[in-house]
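Q: What would this chain look like folded?
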Amino acid sequence: MTDTGNAAAGSLDPEDVARANLYGLIGRLFYAPPDPNLLAEISRSEAGGEGGETGLVAAWRGVQEACRGAFPAVVRQEYDSLFIGVGKSEVSPYLSGYAEAATPDRYLVRLRQQLSRWGLGRRETVFEVEDHISGICDVMRWLIAEGQSVERQRYFFEEFAYPGVLPFCIAVQNASSSSFYKSVAALTWSYFEIERTAFDMSDAE
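A: My prediction, written as structure tokens:
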């Protein structure tokens, strides 16, 4: 949803390619319900070895199982109930309300200023505001895929991505309409925790 241009991953190492792809997938799943092709693709994918037999691998397998048993029309109905709703969604997909509940406008202003400094912006055809979980994931994907420094990645992650993700994922998992998206929220949180640990380790080096 964010206009991040065309990222070229040819010079990236496999770990960073996997990181960028996972951010991209998480963003895609929260931006719109998966179509039959995406459900099938996830179902067939191998459980990556990143982190070994960790919570992330288990969470990925949970998403695969959810995809194998999913009916696209049912998942679409769940998505609409959770994130769109009639009048008001059951769960807001906008992270500003979770990251800075008392001053969400300040978060959004800071986010827009940072995106502008990097030459990024919302596509004209997109109605979602920049703090949508999918937009945040897309910026992280862009930072990695464009080979931006670890310092820049860590800054955006700590300032704009990580703070709102836990309460967002908890809200998704606790929502009465949530079934398929419980597994997506579990994957999201597991991955963000791995990223937080990795950034902490890089900061200590």
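Residues 5-9 have pLDDT under 50 and may be disordered.
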